[in-house]
Amino acid sequence: MSTRHPPPGRQLPIVAVTPFPRAAAGALRDAQLRANLGRATRTIREKRAAVVAEVPDWEQLRDRAARVKDDVLDRLPELVDRFTRAATAAGATVHHATDAAAANAVVTDLVRAQGVDRVVKVKSMATQEIGLNEALAAAGVTAVETDLAELIVQLADDTPSHILVPAIHYNRGQIRELFARRMPGFHADSDDPAVLAGAARDYLRRTFLAARVAICGANFAVAETGSLVVVESEGNGRMCLTLPDTLIAVVGVEKLLPRFVDLGDFLRLLPRSSTGERMNPYTSIFTGVTPGDGPRRLHVVLLDNGRRRVAADPVGRAALRCIRCSACLNVCPVYERVGGHAYGSVYPGPIGAILSPQLTGQDAGHNATLPYASTLCGACYDVCPVKIDIPAILVHLRQTGPKPAAERAAMAWLGWTMRDRRRWRAALRAARSGGRPLRVLGRRHGGRLRRAPWPLSAWTTHRDAPLPAEESFRDWWHRTHDS
Amino acid sequence: MRIALFVTCLNDALFPRVGIATVTVLERLGHTVTFPAGQSCCGQLHANTGYPGPARALEQSTEAAFAGHDVVVSPSGSCVAHLRAHTRLPVYELSELLVDVLAVTDVGARFPYRVTYHPTCHGLRMLRLGDRPLRLLGAVRDLELLGLPEPEQCCGFGGTFALKNAAVSGAMLADKCAHAVATGADYLAAADSSCLAHIGGGLARRPGAPRPVHYAEILAATGAGAVG
Ligand code: SF4
C-alpha cells in the first residue's frame, strides 16, 4: 500500500509529477498490487459483459448517448444558461467557476458562511479534480468522505486508484488495521467485510446526523428542468443529499443533458457499464429546494476548468462525453498491470490518458507522457457506453504533443527513406549487410538477437530481436517473378 | 483474379517468408499476384507515434503505388486497418480476401502440428476478422487447433509502446507467453508480423514454448516441414 501526499506547490491533482513509464515501472514491482488489480478488474469485466449482453439494443443506446453528448458540447453556453435559469427558478443558487481556484473559493466561502468546520461529502470526481478537500483543509474545514472506499482512502492519507473502486489497491487486513488507527470509536478486531462495513456505517451515521453542510457532485444535470442526478450504491449519497441544511453541488459543465427524457438512456448505460448491475441501488434526482423537505439551501457550482477549451478541439472533445463509468479502466491491459496511481491524476486509465492532458494542456507536469500509456489495443473503445474512440484521441494527442528531438529526427529520416522506392531499396540492402555480423552473433539463438545496445536494449531486455532477412521480399520477388 | 500484394515494410525487411507464403497460397489457388514496386510503408508507425506529416506522405505514396488496382491484399491486420482508415484503396486482410472475396476456406494446406491462435487487437477489434483465420486454419489437413486462454488480451507490443513503456510491455508479454506455453502447442499463429516479432522474441526465451508463425505460412505449407 502506498501512501501519497499532494505534490509540492499547488498543482492540480490532474497533473502527473512523474513520467508515466517511470511511475508504471515502479507500480509493476508491487506484486500484491498486481494480483489485487488483476482479480478485481477481471471480476468487474465479466459482470459487465454479462449484463451488457442482456440488452439487445445496446449499440443503438451507445449511438444515441454519444449523439446527445455531442449535441450538448455543441451548445454548451446555451445549455448552461438554460440550466441556470431553470435551477434558479426552482430555488437553487447557481455559480459559474472558470477554474479550480474559482470553484474552491466559492465553495469555501459558502461553507464558512454557515459557520461550520466539518462537512460531509458524496464521492465526486469534479471535487477531486479541483482539490477541494485540500482547499477546505487550508481554510480549517474538514471534509469527510462518506463513500466507504473513499473513506478508506481518506483515512489512509492516500489517493484513489480507480474511479469507481478507489480503494481497489487495499485488501481487508489492511483496511482493518487502518480503521483501528484512524477511525474514532473503532474497536472490532475482525477483518470480516461485514464487521468492517458495520463499523464504518456506525461512524458515518454519527457524522451524517451532525452535519449541517454537504458537498456532492452530479452524474447528470438536466438543463430543461434544472435538476441534478446522483447515482450511487451505498445510500450515503441519499443521506448527504437530504439531511443537511445546506447542499453544495460541484458539477462539470459537460454533465449537462438537454432534456429530462434524455436521462433514460444514460441510466440504462451507466450501471451496467460501471458496476455490472442492471440498476444501481440509489438514484437521487432533485430540483432546487422544497420547503419542509431536504436542504433549505442548494448551491450549484458549474465548473469549466478547461472544458470549454477541450470542447473546441474537434477530435479531442469526445473525451467530454465521458460519464465516468470506469469500464475502460477495467478492460485496459495497461491499467490492469500498473493501477491508477501511475497516471498521476484523479482520472486514471484510458480516460485519464486522454482527459488529464487535455484539461491541463500537455505542457503541465508530465501529462504529455500519458497519451503514450497505451498499446492502442482498442478494448476501451469497445466497452465505452458513450462510444469515445479513445485510441483515436490518444493518437491525436501524440500528434499534437511535444516530442524528443532525437526521435523527431529519426522519424523524419525514416519517413524520407521509405517514401522513395530507390532510397527504401538501398536501405533494405544496407540493413541486410549491416545485419550480417549480427546474424552470426544471433545464430545461437535461432537467428535472433538476444542483447542489443541502447536504445534497442529497451527491446532486448524483455525479448529477442528479429534480424534483417538474408534476402528482402522485393529481392525475392525480383528474382522469381520479374525475369 | 489479379491481386496486388502490399507486403508491408516489416515483412519486406525482416519477414519476407510471410510475403512469400501469401504469394504461394494465392498462386496455388490460380490467381495472379502482382507486386507494385513503389510500395514501402503504410504510414501507421509514424501516425501512431505522433508524426502526421510523414504518415500522410507514406499514406499518399502507398495510395499512388496501388492506383488502378482493384484488389489489394496484405498479410497484416494493423496495416490494413490503417490503410482502410486513411486511404481509399480496396485493401483486404488475407483472411478477408480468402473467405469473403474468393469464398474459400480450404486452401489445400497440410500442417501436421498443434497450433494455437492469437487474434491480434487490430484483427479482433478494428477489422473484426472474427473466426475467418480460424476457419482457414480449421481446414488445414492434420492441424490440431488448441484454444489460447484470454485470447483477446493485447500482447503488449503497441509499436513504439514496446520501447517507451518497456516495463509494462514486458509484463503484458510475459502473461501472453505464459498462456501460449500453457496450451502445449507447437506453434503460436497470428495475423500480424509485428505482434509476432514481439511475442516470438519472448517465446524464444522460454523453454518448450510454441514457435511463432504467421498463419499465412501455415496456409502455404503442404508437407510435413516445419516453418517459421
Ligand atoms: S471513457 Fe467511456 S468507458 Fe471510460 S469512464 Fe468514460 S464513459 Fe466510461
Give an account of the 3D structure.
- Chain A is α/β, with parallel strands linked by helices and 483 residues long.
- Chain A has 2 domains: 289 residues, Rossmann fold; 74 residues, no CATH class.
- In chain A, 49% of the residues lie in helices and 11% in strands.
- Chain A is built from 22 helices and 12 strands.
- In chain A, strands 1-10-7-4-2-3 form a 6-stranded parallel sheet, sandwiched between helices.
- In chain A, helix 16 packs parallel to helix 18.
- Chain A is elongated.
- The N terminus of chain A is likely disordered.
- In chain B, strands 2-1-3-4 form a 4-stranded parallel sheet, sandwiched between helices.
- Chain B has 228 residues and is of the alpha/beta class.
- Chain B is built from 12 helices and 8 strands.
- Chain B folds into 2 domains: 100 residues, Rossmann fold (3-Layer(aba) Sandwich); 107 residues.
- The longest helix of chain B has 18 residues.
- At the A-B interface, helix 1, helix 15, helix 17, helix 18 and helix 19 of A face helix 1, helix 2, helix 3, helix 4 and helix 7 of B.
- Chain A: Pfam families: Fer4_8 (PF13183), LUD_dom (PF02589), LutB_C (PF11870).
- Chain A: This is Lactate utilization protein.
- Chain A: Keywords: 4Fe-4S, Electron transport, Iron, Iron-sulfur, Metal-binding, Repeat, Transport.
- Chain A: InterPro entries: 4Fe4S_Fe-S-bd, 4Fe4S_Fe_S_CS, FTHF_cligase-like_sf, Helical_ferredxn, LUD_dom, LutB/LldF, LutB_C, NagB/RpiA_transferase-like.
- Chain B: Pfam families: CCG (PF02754).
Considering the chains and any ligands shown, give keywords for the structure.
heterodimer; A: alpha/beta; B: 228 residues; Rossmann fold; four-stranded parallel sheet; binds iron/sulfur cluster
Fold blueprint:
The complex is a heterodimer of chains A (483) and B (228).
Chain A: H1 20-28, H2 31-53, H3 58-74, H4 76-89, E1 93-97, H5 100-113, E2 118-121, H6 125-129, H7 132-138, E3 142-145, H8 148-155, H9 172-182, H10 193-210, E4 213-216, E5 220-222, E6 227-232, H11 236-242, E7 246-252, E8 256-257, H12 263-274, E9 282-287, E10 297-303, H13 307-311, H14 327-331, H15 333-338, H16 349-360, H17 379-383, H18 390-400, H19 405-418, H20 421-442, E11 448-449, H21 457-460, E12 465-466, H22 473-481
Parallel strand pairs in A: 1-10, 2-3, 2-4, 4-7, 5-8, 7-10
Antiparallel strand pairs in A: 5-6, 6-9, 11-12
Chain B: E1 2-5, H1 9-13, H2 16-28, E2 32-34, H3 44-49, H4 52-65, E3 72-74, H5 77-86, E4 91-93, H6 94-101, E5 114-117, H7 121-126, H8 132-138, E6 144-146, H9 161-164, H10 166-183, E7 187-190, H11 193-203, E8 211-214, H12 215-220
Parallel strand pairs in B: 1-2, 1-3, 3-4, 5-6, 5-7, 7-8
